[in-house]
Amino acid sequence: MQVPGDMFPTDWSPPPVEFLNLRVLQAGQEAPAQRCPPKELEQEPPDSQEQLFCNMAGLCQQAVAPEFASGGSESYVNSLDYLLQEKRMLLEKYSLPQQVIPPVHPGETVFLPRSHPLPCILDSSHIKPRNHLEGLFLSSPLAQQLSLLRSGLLSTLYLHVPDCPVPLLQWLFQLLTWPPETSLGAFGLLWDLSVDGLFCQSDEDMHLWCPSLPEVMEAFHSLGAHIPALYPLGPFQHGSRVLRSEAGLSGNEQQDTPQEVALDISLSYIYKFLTLCALAQPGTYTDGSLVGLIELLCRASLDVGLRLLPKADLQQLLLLLLENIQEWPGKLQQLCRTLSQVSDHHHNLLALVQLFLDVTSRSRQLRSQLSLVVIARMLGQQETLPLWQEKTHLSLLGRLLSLMRPSSLGQYLGSESLPPCQEQQPKASAELDYKACYLCHSLLTLAGVVVSCQDITPDQWDELQLLCIQLDRHISAHIRESPRAMHRTKLKDLAAQTYIRWQELLAHCPPQAQYFSPWKDT
After folding, report:
1. Which residues of 409-430 are buried (b: 16+ CB within 10 A; e: fewer)?
2. Could you give the angle at which helices 166-175 and 213-222 cross, rounded to 10 degrees?
3. Are the beta carbons of 324 and 277 closer than 8 angstroms?
4. How far is 407 from 166, CA to CA, in rounded Å?
């Protein structure tokens, strides 16, 4: 018993648990005025829990099924399903969209998956065997020839021998497109035979076999490249072996290496050998062939599977091919026009510009001119501006910069009307805003390439300062940031970084004296 005034109770028994007994609840609902302490729980054995669980299960079933009464909200019972639906609605209302400007270009589908390599037959009809072993090799089937190649016996047969048969070199070059277990031996032998031949010849008679442009195209086709992706207009005739059946070999080499890795290995071998040819034989290719070869390599580099792989071998090769062009000022315009049509996506063209390293004079000229041409093409101004005049890049860029504001790009991209349904209009408007900011991001990056490739002189100081003013007026001031549009934040960050870089160029290049004192001579 508890004495009145005590601070602590003497009865520590737990309170009654009527809510666990369904019959008590039902009785309470029927006659609320005659409620009494339950007797069932007192008579239940302590170790019997079956009835307790049944009662709890009945209550849970009643709680899961929500009831809606017309009388009011008192009869509404919440459910887990409704709580989950409420949570999804809340997340949809306040969640951020996933539309962000991607750091990697989308790429193009150039190389298709190929389960078996194309047949590659050694044409020995014009080769006269020098000994019995060479005759046995030339008359053997392809599987045995490949076995001799992997074992290294061909090095003993042809290394340090003058006048290596050209059909053998062509055969080895085509084998670079086979799986790594074959292409590794083919590249090693092709490299050793070519370098050994250079050392065996005199400076006057130095000659190195180099694959022609159709032979390089044939090798790319063997790797899975479809001809429309390489040359949409088809300016070159295909080799005879390209038109053969593409059925796999009997006996057959399986692609144990992943497709992208095997493709990258084969392309690396091809780039390395073409680099040797460009170094040892600079005059092998004509200017037209060099332009075509550069276009072919650039198209192949945009393959979807190669986007994240390093391209150091290709970049080194492109620098050498640019240096080997004889009529450089004349071919620069043709090269820029050709490369600006390699893709229709602005981010792919930006990746193409960045493929050329900023380390040589010709590469800097190509980067600057090609960036300006791509910007003009994306804005529909390629035929209206004098893009090929010397020392006008900054002034032309100023005229293009005023067209690069996101609102103008949105009008340019949204020439077709918005959906008539009002429910779809906000979604379509948000998608159009994202596309405009994405395009502006690529164009602004290209504009930074144009400026960085210029040697800013004092007489160009005012032009660059005007570019800074236009950048702030037409782009930075027109970007309204929002937590639901992170692509705008990324674009505004790029505009700020570009503005800072241009201001640093202005700080390192003092302007002409008459810019500050135009009335000095008066």
Report:
1. bbeeebeeeeeeeeeeeeeeee
2. 40
3. no
4. 60
Q: What is the pLDDT of residues 217-262, one digit of tens each?
A: 999 999 999 877 776 655 444 333 333 333 333 334 455 568 889 9
Q: Print burial letters for 374-398: b (CB count within 10 Å at least 16), e (below 16).
A: bbbbbbeebeebebeeeeebbebbb
pTM listed for this prediction: 0.76
CA distances 167 to 76, 124, 137, Å, are 87, 7, 13
What residue type is assigned to position 367 of the chain? R
Tokens of 65: 């099924």
**487-491 contacts at long range (C-beta below 8 A, 24 or more positions apart):** 487/99, 487/100, 487/101, 487/434, 487/437, 487/438, 487/441, 488/406, 488/433, 488/437, 490/100, 490/101, 490/437, 490/441, 491/101, 491/406, 491/437, 491/440, 491/441, 491/444
* 485 DSSP 8-state letter: B
Cross-strand partners of 485:
482
Answer yes or no: are the C-beta atoms of 468 and 397 closer than 8 Å: no
> E strands of 355-417, at which residues?
none
Let me know how long the chain is: 522
Distance, CA of 398 to CA of 395 (rounded, Å): 5
Range with lowest mean pLDDT among 18-32, 187-201, 411-425:
18-32
Q: Domain spans of the chain?
A: 107-124+136-244+255-326
